[in-house]
Design a protein that fits this description.
Strand content: 5-15%
Radius of gyration: 19 Å
Number of helices: 14
Shape: globular
Number of strands: 8
Helix content: 40-55%
Order of helices and strands: EHHHHHEHHEHEEHEHHHEHEH
Oligomer: single chain
Length: 319
């Protein structure tokens, strides 16, 4: 089977995530300790004990989700001898792209933790709480054309764009609150259900431009290493490739564009299942959100999530 590793994004966090890995494996505990040290806070305690409202804060949720994913990656390598290079591609949903890049060797673990904390803080600073909004458009009639029509209606009163093209029947819009409210009304007229999301900022919209500028400045200074596994990027839905001296800057540029740009997850998955030849999608980290999407987008491929020590052991035995 040809494998792709998928790394989850914000929304997959929960109190207690990654605890079973830490309790079972010293290698997982080492990852959490490295992240704690890089951030100068006991994020691992927050992951284990909560409170949930603190874990859900963007600046905490982003590095926490990365930590669980990378703990699982390290456990697979150290305990079971399964290296990330067994995968043909890595991909991550929004912040999960940083997890994917860390797993593939582009960023160090400590660098990734710091970048995600800053990314969360920068996103929150970009728009005052309550001024922006996001909503999920769902249902059998929901497709990209419907979502773009709804967003266009919202744009008559403010900024409103398609933020996440997750899969047919699940598309997220983002922008000014008044504009998103108008888009929700239009989406319902067109036959979709619309659910406002409990988020603190309008991610993946032009309103995030101040955050993109902050990330541009920081990413220009960080140390990076060549990818060990190709990345399928959010904003292009294609693998990054080319000469390393140019590629390392291309990846940084794509990460900056990702702050304001659309997460083209459906297209990324379709490319991997088609031209990419992927027959096995494995979500690694917290939750099973991407696994559900994979089953809808690529029903002929195998899709599974690695959340527990038992999951990792079973997966390792499949090689």
């Amino acid at each position: 089977m040809t494998l792709a590793l998928l790394f989850p994004g914000q929304g997959s966090q929960s109190v207690g995530m990654g605890v079973a890995l830490a309790d079972a494996f010293a290698s997982a505990r080492e990852v959490y300790a490295e992240v704690d040290e890089a951030l100068g806070q006991k994020l691992s305690v927050l992951m284990r004990e909560g409170p949930e409202d603190q874990l859900t804060l963007t600046e905490n949720a982003q590095p926490a989700l990365m930590a669980v994913s990378l703990a699982a990656v390290r456990v697979l390598k150290v305990e079971f001898g399964v290296d990330v290079t067994r995968a043909a591609f890595v991909a991550g949903h929004s912040l999960g792209e940083y997890s994917a890049l860390c797993a593939a060797g582009y960023f160090s673990l400590s660098t990734t933790a710091g970048l995600l904390q800053l990314r969360g803080q920068a996103m929150q600073r970009a728009v005052p709480v309550g001024m922006g909004a996001m909503a999920s458009l769902i249902g059998p009639k929901t497709d990209l054309a419907l979502a773009e029509a709804a967003a266009a209606a919202g744009s008559e009163v403010g900024v409103c764009v398609v933020a996440n093209d997750n899969n047919a029947g699940n598309i997220v819009i983002s922008g000014d609150k008044a504009a998103v409210d108008r888009a929700i009304e239009k989406a319902k007229e067109l036959g979709a259900r619309a659910i406002p999301l409990n988020v603190s900022a309008p991610f993946h919209s032009p309103l995030m431009e101040p955050a993109a500028a902050e990330m541009d400045a920081v990413l220009a200074e960080v140390s990076v290493e060549p990818l060990r596994v190709p990345l399928v990027a959010n904003v292009t839905a294609r693998p990054v490739s080319g000469d390393w001296n140019e590629l390392k800057w291309d990846i940084r540029r794509l990460l900056v564009e990702q702050v304001t740009g659309r997460v083209r997850w459906r297209e990324s998955m379709e490319w991997m299942a088609g031209e990419g030849g992927i027959t096995r999608f494995v979500e690694i980290g917290s939750g099973k959100v991407l696994t559900g999407m994979a089953k809808r987008i690529a029903p002929d491929a195998e899709s599974l999530a690695l959340n527990t020590p038992e999951d990792l052991e079973t997966f390792a035995k499949s090689f």
